[in-house]
Amino acid sequence: MCPLPSIVDTYGPISHKTPHLVQTARTSRLPWSPPDAKSVDHRETVNQAIAEATKATELDPRLVQAYDLLGSLYLQNEQPDRAVKASQIALTIAPKDQRALYTLILALRKTNSKGELKELVQKLTDLRKSEAMESNQKARYGQLVEEQ
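Predicted structure:
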């Protein structure tokens, strides 16, 4: 079996045919690149988001999404202890909140508090399985209802 020829083998080096494109590709920057987790701009954005999510929890202490967001943001900001607290609050409000449970697992791994990790991972697995079963049942029975 003969390997397929490369583009360079077939057409020759691209830099000889279009040197201006190669030079542009080397010197130009993309108009947007993903933020580096340690960049100052990214940290400021995360800190602003934390402030806004904190305001949301003050306005409505039962707003689970705000605590979920806080947990994720604290993890990004390398504050796992705060992420644990935010996730635990979210789980007291909504015990089946998979996002909060996942964030809690990640935060506990970063704080080296691995005592309850097995139980939490098992709980998350069980929640995901039950959600998949419910989704399948809704799809199955939803089709039966639509057919009638």
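Summary: The chain has one domain: 39-147.
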